[in-house]
Specification:
There is one protein chain. The protein is of the alpha+beta class and about 130 residues long. Helices cover about 50% and strands about 20% of the residues. It contains 4 helices and 5 strands; from the N terminus they run H-H-E-E-H-E-E-H-E. Strands 1-4-3-5-2 form a 5-stranded antiparallel β-sheet. Helix 1 (about 1-30) runs antiparallel to helix 2. The longest helix has 27 residues, at about 1-30. It starts with a helix and ends with a strand.
């Protein structure tokens, strides 16, 4: 986990550096577009997302009482809803649940697409944006 954290921090530092470069360039050349910025940043965003997902697969959970808001459902129901297009990352996120306790580990619909599903939990709590 330390290696993943180190890699994620390195990518975060690079993202900040690139953001600063782009902001300076934007100030000097207003013809640059969001699309230019997105194309430049996408590889870094993808790396950061992949490392974050890998970290969530090996995190040791911390638990707390279930939130008063959010929808609790079985992991199987969540997976089925994602596969049928009912949830996408833009809609919100979930947290894994075990023994009626909410963990600090997030799950996103895109995790299902990539097969990144923790099997040590049987429920999630879903939070819409």
């Amino acid at each position: 986990m330390e290696t993943l954290t180190k890699r994620l921090l390195e990518i975060d530092a690079k993202l900040r550096e690139v953001n600063e470069e782009i902001a300076t360039k934007e100030a000097n050349d207003p013809t640059n577009s969001w699309d230019d910025f997105r194309r430049y940043m996408q590889p870094l965003w993808d790396k950061a997302a992949k490392l974050s997902a890998e970290m969530r697969m090996i995190m040791i959970p911390e638990f707390q009482e279930l939130s008063e808001y959010g929808d609790v459902m079985s992991l199987k129901e969540f997976i089925s809803t994602v596969k049928s297009g009912g949830f996408i990352d833009y809609d919100g996120f979930g947290k894994y649940v075990k023994n009626k306790q909410e963990s600090n580990i997030h799950i996103y619909p895109s995790d299902i697409k990539h097969g990144l599903i923790r099997k040590d939990f049987n429920q999630i709590i879903w939070f819409n944006k």
